Amino acid sequence: MGELFTFFGLISHDKTFIYLTHMLLTAGIALVLVKMAMSNLKMVPTGAQNVMEAYISGVLKMGTDVMGQEAARRYLPLVATIGLFVGIANLIGVVPGFEAPTAFLEFAFTLAVTVFIYYNFEGIRRQGIVNYFKHFLGPVWWLYWLMLPIEIVSHFSRLVSLSFRLFGNVKGDDMFLMVILMLAPWLLPMIPYALLTFMAFLQAFIFMMLTYVYIGSAIAVEEHH
User: Fold this and answer.
1) How many separate domains does the chain show?
2) pLDDT tens digits for range 99-138
3) Which of 115, 116, 124, 138 has its CA 20 to 30 A from that of 211?
4) Which domain holds residue 202?
């Protein structure tokens, strides 16, 4: 099976070029949407402001369910930015002629590393380095030797979980769309577009939820004991 057709591929077939151009396109769209939402703020929101406020309220509600409202507000900028970026990146892949940046492992893994470093940093900052890493040992002293490697592997497996879940699902959706376009390029693709759009939003939601969960578990280490 050949590569996906992309408009940027007409300029260069280099994988890095296609990845970077689609990533920059995603960032550009995100910035334009935010600019539109903030350009004419009103007490009664309309248009882009209304959509953006609904999105922010939804992300905050999600975080409140995970870690409480105060903590959710503190980490809202990070999670909402990631969600917006991932959601737009996923949706780009639904449009024929474009490829989702999240279909590149480099993109998904970079986001996963960012979340991994950040939640560990927050855990150390909020709990202190000794108390934070103490929970890696578990609650029973005579099981320290067993719990330490298990916890280390568990934390690093989150990198794989975050990155490969996003990459695998989006890449699979791109391949599915390419097959549909090859078999019936005019009528049949209209049927799975709704499903692919839903999956694009779903993967962004899952990434945001896991980010909140990982941060919440890192800053609430003491409660686990």
Assistant:
1) 1
2) 899 999 989 999 999 999 999 999 999 988 888 888 888 7
3) 138
4) 8-224
3-40: per-residue pLDDT in tens? Answer: 567 888 888 888 889 989 999 999 999 999 999 888 87
Identity (one letter) of the amino acid at 110? T
Task: Report which secondary-structure segment, H or E, holds 32.
Answer: helix 15-38
Residue 205 structure tokens: 């939601």
Query: With left for phi above 0 and alpha for psi between -120 and 50, is residue 5 left, alpha or beta?
Result: beta
3-state secondary structure of 97: strand
Q: Cβ–Cβ contacts within 10 Å for residue 115, how many?
A: 22
Residue (of 89, 21, 91, 79) closest to 55 by Cα position? 79
Entry pTM? 0.87
Do residues 120 and 154 lie in contact, with contact meaning Cβ atoms separated by under 8 Å? Answer: no
Please report whether residue 71 resides in a domain.
yes
Instruction: Count CB-CB contacts under 10 A for residue 212.
Output: 24
Would 122 be classed as within a structural domain? Answer: yes
Is there a contact between 208 and 79 (Cβ–Cβ < 8 Å)?
yes
Q: Is residue 17 part of a domain?
A: yes
Alpha carbon distance 143, 139 (integer Å): 8
Residue 171's Cβ-count burial label (10 Å; 0-12, 13-18, 19+) is buried
Enter the tokens of residue 34: 């935010």
Long-range contacts of 106-109 (CB under 8 A, 24+ apart): 106/19, 107/19, 107/23, 107/167, 108/162, 108/163, 108/164, 108/166, 108/167, 108/170, 109/159, 109/163, 109/167
